[in-house]
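Hello forum,

I keep getting stuck at the same step: I have a sequence, I want structure tokens, and every attempt I make locally crashes halfway through. Rather than fight my setup again tonight, could one of you with a working pipeline run this one for me? It's a single chain of 305 residues.
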Amino acid sequence: MRVFMTGAGGYIGGVVAGRLRAAGHAVAGLARGEDAARRLTEAGVEAVRGDLGDIALVEREAGAADAVIHLAMEQSRRAVELDGAVTDAVLRAMQGSGRPFLYTSGTAVLGDTGAWPADEDRRIDPAGPVAWRAAHEAQVTDAAARGVRGMVIRPSLVYGRGGGAVVTSQVQAARRDGVARYVGDGANRWSTVHVDDLADLYLLALGRAEGGSVWNAEGGETVSMAELAAAASRTAGAGGRVEGLEPDEAKAAFGWMTRMLALNLVVTSARARAELGWSPSSPSLLEELASGSYASAGEADAEPR
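Reply #2:
Ran it on my machine without issues. Output:
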């Protein structure tokens, strides 16, 4: 199977592309610039020169592929517009084909879940910080009527291999400032998923999931933001020192992520375990932070997936 991917050179996308290739699939990835194209080629991925703004290119590549996985998100004011345009283009190209299209959302689309784990049927909070994703999800899951096997994956907090924007940014901040910070009292909790386990879910969904399905991705561990900050502080050599910030202070530290970092984002992946046979088995986030995989964390990954 030839799979066309956006975000194949990113943190999550690179691991997903590797899993696909190991399973015998050919992978083509959108590459923005010569360096990105070179990295994809070195990883055994066919580099397609262009970016998310080249909608005609995206539509052409989607039409020529056996499957499409959309993982990329441009970091600009056009991010929402481009995400919708790419989704529209893929659905146009695949209309009537019955081929699979995996769209990447995130658990934050639900808004604050509270402490009780939310499943895929939970109602989306229209006031949530990324509630706009709900409309894009619906486009994909409703695509069966257009002859497309559209599916949505909602990763929780992604970690592992020394990456992931939230985790690495906490380690870096603690290394720089001698303290890791969180919003409020830090008692709010997030579900987590190792990037290797997440890649396995993409592979399973591509092969087995039905059109119109939505899959939460969590590996079994939840952490509070205070626990994450303390673990990141220890990893950074800051002795576990942490600090809670009031909302106005938090905006200066976390920017657009502030509102999201104050939420509870607790979900269950019971459906993926039961229906797809997904079986996450990687070390937990707190174990990863303690084991050294983040000891030399570089710049935070810019991909907000």
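The longest strand covers residues 149-155. If your local run keeps crashing, start a new thread with the error log.
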